[in-house]
Specification:
Blueprint (H helix, E strand, L loop, with lengths): L6 E5 L6 H9 L7 H6 L6 E6 L5 E6 L7 H8 L4 E7 L6 H12 L5 E6 L9 H12 L9 E3 L8 H11 L13 E3 L2 E5 L3 E7 L4 E2 L4 E5 L3 E10 L2 E2 L3 E2 L3 E7 L11 E3 L6 E11 L7 E2 L3 E6 L2 E8 L5 E2 L4 E13 L5 E6 L4 E10 L9 H25 L3 E2 H8 L3 H13 L3 E4 L2 E4 H21 L6 E2 H8 L5 H13 L3 E4 L2 E4 L11 H14 L6 H8 L3 H13 L3 E3 L5 E3 H18 L2 E2 H8 L3 H13 L3 E4 L2 E4 H7 L1
Parallel strand pairs: 1-3, 1-4, 4-5, 5-6
Antiparallel strand pairs: 2-3, 7-16, 8-9, 9-15, 10-14, 11-12, 11-16, 12-13, 12-15, 17-22, 17-24, 18-21, 19-20, 19-23, 20-22, 23-24, 25-27, 26-27, 28-30, 29-30, 31-32, 33-35, 34-35
Length: about 625
Amino acid sequence: MEPKRYVIGTAGHIDHGKTMLTRVLTGVNTDRLKEEQERNISIEPGFAPLTLPSGLTVSIIDVPGHEKLIRQMVAGVAGIDFVLLVVAADEGVMPQTREHLSILDLLGVKNGLLLLSKIDRADPDLLPIIEEDLRGLTRGTFLEGAPLLRISSATGEGIDHLLQVLDEKLPCIEQRKSEAPFRLPVDRSFIVKGAGTVVTGTVQSGSTGPGEELEVLPGGKRVKVRQAQVHSQTVPIVQAGQRAALNLSGINREEVFRGQTVVQPGIWSTSRRIDIRAVSLPELDFSLRQRSLVTLMIGTSEVFAELILYDRKEWKPGEEIYASLVLREPVVAAHGERFILRRPTPATTIGGGEVAEAAALKRKISPASAEEIRQVWVGGLTARILRALDRTLLLTFREIQSVSGEGEATLHAELKALEEAGRILPVASGFASVNTLTRIGEEMTDWLISYHREHPMIPGVPKAEWSARFLPDLDTKEVNTLLAMWEKRRMLIQRGEYISLHSFTPDLPARWKPAVAQVMNRLQREGWTPTEWETLLQEAGIPAKPGEDIRGYLIREATLVPLTEKLLMHREAYDRAVDLAAKTIRREGSLSMQLAKECFGLSRKYLVPLLELMDKKGITRRVGDKRILIQEEKASR
C-alpha cells in the first residue's frame, strides 16, 4: 500500500508558542534565519518532519504570526491538510488568531485541532474562560467542535496526548491526487554547494523524480530534476501532499523564486485573467467597488489584481460573488484552487474563494456573465471541457488536460463518456465539441447558400478560402478529417479544389442562357479559327464579370477548350483537330510545322497554340521541330 502523506501547519498570533511547539514535536528549530533567531520571531515558514507514535512520518509547517507577515503565512498554509490553531493561555484570542482562522477557512482547510498553549504560565481559573472564547471564535468555521487540547511546550504537558490525537485524526483525511499533472509552488530557492539550485515547496498534485524534465512558470524555463528529497532524505519520487526539495539543472538561483511554480511541461500555463467564486468576510466595515485594486494570494504567489464585478456595483461584506480578476502579473492557477484577497492599504484580509476558470476571457459587464461563471463552477469537469471546446474548435488531449488539471486516467474516462454521449467528437489528434461543429456547420451552410447564389456557375469556394474562414489554425490532416465528416453527413462535397454544398450543382443562370447559346453556335461554326472571347461577349451583350464566370463554367464543363486567354475553341472542333493530328502522325511518322499548316490550313495565330495545347495535354510530344504521338511512343517501348 502506498504510504500516506500529510502536511500539518501551525497558525496563530505572534509569540503564542508555534515555533516552540514545533521544536518540541520534531526536535528542529524552524527559525533558521539569523534575523529570526536574533528577534525570536518567525519571518519565513519553517519546515520539519514529525514521526508519530504509530511510525507515520508527516511534514509540519510553522508559519509566522506577525500581522505584517500574512503573505508568508498564506504561502505556508496554502498546501496543508491539517492545522494546529495555537492560542496562548496567558493572552487568549488575539487579532492574528482571528485573521489566521479566517484565512484557513477561506483556503478550504477542513481538519484541525485547537491548542491552548503555555498553560504553565496561565491562571488555571481563567482557562475555562479562554476556552469558551476560543469556542465562540470557531463557531461556524471548520474548527467548530474540533478537539481542544491544553499543552505546554516548556513542561511537556499534553504533548503525548497531542501526538495520540494526531495519530487518530490524520489517517481519516483524504489523500491528495497524485495522478494529476505535477505542480509545485515554490516557497524557497537556494544554492547547495556542489549541487546547484534547489527549490522547495509542497507538491500540490502529481509526482516527479530524478531525470524528469519540468518547466518553471512564469518564465517558461525548462529544467531537469537531478535529485529529489523529502526532509533531507533522498527519494526516487516525490508525490502530492509531500514537502519536497528538488535539485534542478538548467537554471540559476536568480531565475527561480517564491511565487513561481515548477510544473509538468506542456500541461500548465500562466494566467493574467481568472474567473472566481469568492466570499467576503462578514465583519468587514467597507465594500469594494468595480475595478478595486486587491492583492491576490494564490499558492505562493502574491500579485495585484483588478476586481471585475458583473451583477452588482459593489461587493459588500459577507456576500458571495462570481467575478473576474485581471492580474498585473501572470500566475499559475488551477480550477478549484483556493486563494485569499487582501486590501493593499491599509492591509486587510477581504475574503477568498476558488478559481472557476484559470484562463478566462474578457466578458461583458452583465449579470449574464456572472451566471455563466457560476454555471462553469457548478458544472464540474464536464462543463470545463465543453466550455473549452466551445471556445476553441479543436483541442489536443494535453490542451484539455491543461484546462481540467486532471490526471490522464480521469480525463480519458471523462472524454470517453462525452464521446459516447454524442457531445464531443475525436478529430485527428484532438477533440471537438459536437455543439461547436453543429454551429460551424450551420454558419457554413448559410454562407455557402449565399455564395452559390452569387456565383451559380462556380463549383464552389476554393478549399483554401473555405478552410481559412471556418477552420483557422487547423493543419491539413485536421481540415480533411472534418471535411470527410461533413461529406459523410451529405452537407458538403469537394469537387477538385472547390468546396460546395452537397446539394449544389453549378449551372448557367436562365438570364444568360440565350446569349451563351448564341456564342456557342458561333464558335461551333468557326471551328479552328474562333473569334476572341471578349469580342464574342460584347456582340452577345454579356458584361465582363458574368462573362468571366461563364468562361470558367464552360471550360470546366469541357464544352470549350482554351487555346489562349483570349481564344476558346469549341470542344467538337478541338476533338476533330486531335483526330486529324493523330491520323497524320500515324501516316507520316511525325508532324512538322509545315505539314501541320498543310493539314489544318491555319495561320500561326491559331496553329501554334493548338499544337502546344496537344503537347500540354499529353497527346503529342515535340522532338526537335517535329511532333510524335505519346501513345505510339509508349506502345513502341
